[in-house]
Amino acid sequence: MDYKKNNAPTSVITRDTGELEAKTGNIYETVVVASRRANQIGVDLKNELNKKLEEFASYTDNLEEIFENREQIEISKYYERLPKPTLMALQEILENKIRFRIPSQEEIEQAEELARARERAEQEGLAAKAAIRPMPAEKTFDEIIAESHDTPLSEADADKKAKAAKKDAKPKPKAKE
After folding, report:
1. Contact 48/75 with Cβ under 8 angstroms?
2. How far apart are CA 116 and CA 89, in angstroms?
3. Phi, psi (degrees; rounded to nearest 5) at 35
4. Which residues contact 19 (CB under 8 A, 6 or more apart)?
5. What is the model's pTM?
6. Where are the alpha helices (DSSP H) in 55-169?
């Protein structure tokens, strides 16, 4: 859709809630419809802006280009001056440019059941993949590192390294002057 031709105001204005409510029969439904449409408009505008700014993308560090690229600045300012997506969506509702429908209770229940089934499948799949084993409390840091490198340490070596680590960790007393 061409958002440039949208005659939505660029600033917030007071709206007649009765007029908005008349479009759907419920003001809350109108808010939901407007918010979903505003999200669509926002994504479209962002994609359009990114495509236009991609032309100016520089993959080299050139300070002169950063400060002198007036076309890029003009494009950015143009998009900043456009009405906000929420205002555009409300204007579309008032002009009857939006079609929407409310799903039946049966459709809602089917969607919820499908979501629950997907969640169960993900949980079962993750549980099967996860091989989490508890770590024994008596293992030292060196033993854990050794296991990760597949080089087993003997108990004597592990004890020596653990004692050396403890000695290094103790604060040394300061010499008296």
Report:
1. no
2. 32
3. -70, -40
4. 94
5. 0.55
6. 63-68, 70-81, 85-94, 105-129, 141-148, 155-169
